Amino acid sequence: MKERRLMIAAPGSGCGKTLVTCALLQALKEMGKNAAAYKCGPDYIDPLFHQKVLGVPSKNLDTFFTGEKQTKALFAATEAARGGDTVVVMEGVMGLYDGLGGVREEGSSYHLAKVTGTPVVLVINARGMGKSLLALIAGFLAYDTEHLIKGVILNRISKSYYGIIKPLIEKECNIRVLGYLPEDGRFRWESRHLGLVLPDELPGLREQLSALSRKFQETVSVPELMKIAEEAENWNLSSESENITKEKMQPGYEGADCMNDAVKKRGKNAPVIGVAMDEAFCFYYEDNLRLLEKWGAKLVPFSPLRDKKLPEDCQGLLLGGGYPEVYAEQLSANREMREAVRRAWESRMPMVAECGGFMYLHSALELDEGRRQEMAGALPGECRYTGKLVRFGYVEIEDKKGYFLPAGKKIRGHEFHYFDSTDNGGDCVAVKPFSGKKYDCIMTGETYWLGFPHLYYPSNPAFAENFVKKVVHRSEVNK
């Protein structure tokens, strides 16, 4: 099966990667193509745009989280499972070469493109630039040791100047210029401290994307983009996706061999994990959810904003990240759900809470305007808005007490939050992979893992296995 794919990357943030990615995905849909998307790096919001607005399947790929072999295997497994003639669009993160610490290749868009053999199209914010565009492009091409950059799209440039600069770029840089997008206020989406605002918060977004797609197809050569996608390295997806086992995952992980047996034994008695999923809690890595299911869990979504009780037969809770601060008043007003979550905590129901979910478990959120909203009250402390990033970036986490991870083993994750807790916990130690800086974090116990870091379970699948085992134990005890 020929896998057509390309990556939309840029010299830096704010150049229009999401804009071009969404425009291309919408155009492919309108052309009757099967499209799929991936987001490079740990960001949650861009995949939500791909999925919720465009209806295109999307997930994250991150070479820091899973290394070269497993990242390629995860990509291959997903594409092999589709079994169709798919056009894959990968959306880059930050600048093309920006990886760990801003200076290492690992974790960068370029590293992912290199690992997966994916050609790159560079989106450049041309506003306020003239011939300097050539110097910028030439510099990026000089760093491209694998010769992956196959084309350029200019953003925020007039039609008349595009006609002048395009032939100069193609002649002097020897690179295809595939088109442009003009300056248009309709196609600029708002941001907040964690990135773009959520799709549900942008009125008329689908209509905007339809208009964007029409403009994109007028000013950018989609046939040329398809030719570039055809140039992707051709490899056997089925072969690459086989046996994503312990040697391709965390070194020393011994659980993969018994995964299928565990699932078969559970059969119809799959343990139910309630997953908080609404506008306030929507930051989940797709691979995390699928790994819990592979270990035999049944995931049932519920809304802390609107539901009055937890899902029926719920024996475990997963409270993901999101924007609880934006919906703090509604969360506080739903007293029935807050009490249900607190009772679940008091009954020692197995529980994993990350970032926004961790904030929700506190007694209250203190917001930037000085307002205070009551939360679930499972934890006695408060979370307060600091006005700045508290901790940011990739981390490797070790469970000091071994409740969720084998002794001495680590799981990888990411932190990005402006709130902080009066008690962040100290049962784990986090290490910054670039600087080596260490700090204590997270509350863990026999039945709980609560803290700010977002985890990527495939970086140590034992975490998902142990969480499901705790839920299974709970369901058996309660029979």
What is the element layout, followed by pairings?
Layout: E1 4-9, H1 17-30, E2 34-40, H2 45-53, E3 58-61, H3 63-82, E4 86-91, H4 109-116, E5 120-125, H5 132-143, E6 149-155, H6 159-173, E7 176-181, E8 191-192, E9 195-196, H7 205-219, H8 222-230, H9 237-241, H10 259-266, E10 272-276, E11 281-283, H11 286-294, E12 298-302, E13 314-319, E14 321-322, H12 328-333, H13 335-346, E15 351-354, H14 356-360, E16 364-366, E17 372-374, E18 382-385, E19 391-399, E20 410-417, E21 419-421, E22 428-431, E23 438-441, E24 443-444, E25 448-451, E26 454-455, H15 462-477
Parallel strand pairs: 1-4, 1-5, 2-3, 2-4, 5-6, 6-7, 10-12, 10-13, 13-15, 15-25, 16-18
Antiparallel strand pairs: 8-9, 11-14, 16-17, 18-21, 19-20, 19-22, 20-26, 22-23, 24-25
Helix pairs in contact: 1-7, 3-4, 5-6
Description:
With 479 residues, this protein is an alpha/beta fold. The chain has 15 helices and 26 strands. The strands form 6 sheets. It has a 7-stranded parallel sheet with strand order 3-2-4-1-5-6-7, sandwiched between helices. A 6-stranded mixed sheet has the order 12-10-13-15-25-24. It has a 5-stranded antiparallel sheet with strand order 23-22-19-20-26, with helices on one face. 47% of the residues are buried.
Quick overview of this protein structure:
The protein is α/β, with parallel strands linked by helices and 479 residues long. Helix content is 34%, strand content 24%. It is globular and about 70 Å long.
